[in-house]
Amino acid sequence: MVAFSSAEPTGTDESDPEWCGLLEYLLTARGFDFHGYKPASLARRIRKRMNLVGLKSFAAYQQHLESHPTEFATLFNTILVNVTGFFRDPAAWEAIRTAVVPEILAGKSPDEPVRAWSAGCATGEEAFTIAMILAEALGEDAFRERVKIYATDVDEDALNTARHAAYQANQVEAVPPELREKYFEQVDDVYFFRKSLRRQVIYGRHDLINDTPISRIDLLTCRNTLMYLNAETQARVLARLHFALNEGGFLLLGRAETLIAHGHNFVAVDLKQRLSRKGLRPSWQGHPSPQADKRRSPRSAWMAGSRARPWRSAQWFSWWWTPTGR
Ligand SMILES: C[S@@+](CC[C@H](N)C(=O)[O-])C[C@H]1O[C@@H](n2cnc3c(N)ncnc32)[C@H](O)[C@@H]1O
Fold this sequence. Notes:
This protein is α/β, with parallel strands linked by helices. It has helices spanning 17-30, 39-52, 58-67, 70-79, 90-106, 125-138, 140-146, 156-164, 177-183, 195-198, 231-244, 290-295, 301-304, 310-313; strands at 114-119, 147-153, 166-168, 184-187, 190-193, 201-205, 217-222, 245-253, 258-270, 275-278, 319-322. It has an eight-stranded mixed beta sheet. It has a three-stranded antiparallel beta sheet with strand order 3-5-4. Helix 1 (17-30) runs parallel beside helix 3, helix 5 (90-106) crosses helix 6 and helix 6 (125-138) packs across helix 7 (140-146). Residues 80-84, 88, 120-122, 126, 153-155, 158, 207-209, 223-225, 228, 254 line the site of S-adenosylmethionine.
């Protein structure tokens, strides 16, 4: 039997009882399940906290958590990277604005709901980016009548920031000035995302690994979140995201998250922007869905013209998740 010294953390796999004990403790004590995360980067972040409080073993750190409950919040802030921004990766949002949203709206009658989900939304910037794009496309009245945007994260602290929707000047710099003017209220140095639009945003704690996915989604963004998970968990979460989408619904991943051919689940729309679409039935290959044909509205007329839609030019491959490096 291997003896584990408590002087140095030895490993981060199932053979290390101290490591397993700590993960189990985080789950039972606070409901955070880190079993599906990449062990090396998870351990690196936990060790960072251990170094700062002067502890060398996972077991000692677990005892420290037991006697210093405030350490939980600091630890979770270290593990759950909340880095985000409005219009992060502008080219991806340009594709959403110019191609994806018009296609979604073209496939719906004028009173049908439009449902988006920012999964792993951190402090809310991504959800509000979607809100601005949809409000611009629909007009504010229709936006309020038709749109629901789910903004979820496993991190309650980040979600609370999202709920307040208050940002500093440097945080709203990436918002085009005309949208900033229109959708934010400035009070002293703080920019509040406007309340009238915020009502369409529904915030909730949601763990992508363990919780039931939201359903009937037209546009799902899950960016820079899957890359923290191990290969098996990434695949599991991707299957849930697939379930969450309407037929033909769109999925936008982060820049570091790629897809490979496998199975019949997603169609690549724009590989560079990590944009894909839930597979339409084979008889619809390369064509808009019958529903979209029936309901196609004049506002999408340009799309039928010479400007090729990205998914028209994409071959009918089916794409599935390729896990990012462990
Ligand atoms: C780097 S941020 C990405 C924020 C935003 N999507 C973006 O790309 O700008 C990653 C977010 O994923 C969240 N997260 C990590 N694990 C999660 C899980 N199992 N379920 C839901 N959210 C998770 C973190 O709390 C964090 O807010």
